[in-house]
Design goal:
Strand order of the largest sheet: 4-3-5-6
Order of helices and strands: HEEEHEHHHEEH
Helix content: 25-40%
Distance between the termini: 80 Å
Structural class: alpha+beta
Strand content: 5-15%
Number of strands: 6
Radius of gyration: 25 Å
Length: 197
């Protein structure tokens, strides 16, 4: 009888250990096969220059060029090319969204109203322009956290180098490419992407 109890105890112990090992394997397998949840730009609602809410989910199915802008920068004339490609492709599921920012050389000192007037008067800007935000540092806007952090965008970690850095977002709201501030909006790299070449 004593032997039987001992045998039963050993069997129960073995079964218990085997069960725990299987559970651990299953948990580990689940952890390694579960992909990192990639965020999209559609989760964001921001304020435009007029103070109205702009919901990125309304842009589903479109290619989006997000750009941080400034009114007193050597690259400010890029507004002209941005407007040109916007006019050319806006009816072909393409949109530009501008974010004025004062992070570089204090080159965007104006209020939202002053920025709106400047863009309209000097460049005839008709693509959506958002309220002024911060695109780097401790007060970086959540949309730029998404654009610059691989953990959120699933593509790459990057830093906004200067005014007029461009972020290309595909039709699924995912970050597809980061383009240097000095690359003109009409450059083949951007145009080919818009045209799907």
């Amino acid at each position: 009888m004593k032997k039987l109890v001992t045998l039963f105890s050993v069997a129960a112990l073995l079964f218990s250990c085997q069960n725990q090992a299987q559970k651990k394997q299953t948990t580990t397998a689940a952890a390694t096969t579960t992909p990192m949840a990639k965020e999209t730009i559609y989760q964001f609602k921001v304020e435009d220059l007029s103070g109205d809410t702009f919901d990125f989910s309304t842009l589903k199915g479109k290619k989006i060029l997000v750009v941080n802008t400034a009114s007193e920068c050597g690259l400010t004339p890029q507004y002209e090319q941005l407007q040109a490609i916007y006019e050319k492709y806006k009816d072909k599921n393409f949109v530009i969204v501008g974010f004025p920012a004062n992070n570089f050389g204090a080159q965007e000192p104006g209020s939202n109203q002053q920025i709106a007037t400047f863009c309209q008067k000097n460049y005839g800007v008709s693509f959506p322009m958002m309220a002024k935000i911060s695109v780097k540092g401790g007060d970086m806007h959540p949309i730029y956290q998404f654009l610059t952090q691989k953990a959120k965008n699933g593509l790459e970690d990057n830093e906004v180098q200067w005014n007029f850095q461009k972020y290309l977002i595909n039709e699924n709201g995912e970050l597809a490419k980061v383009v240097s501030p000095r690359t003109l909006p009409t450059d083949a790299e951007i145009v080919n992407w818009i045209e799907g070449k």
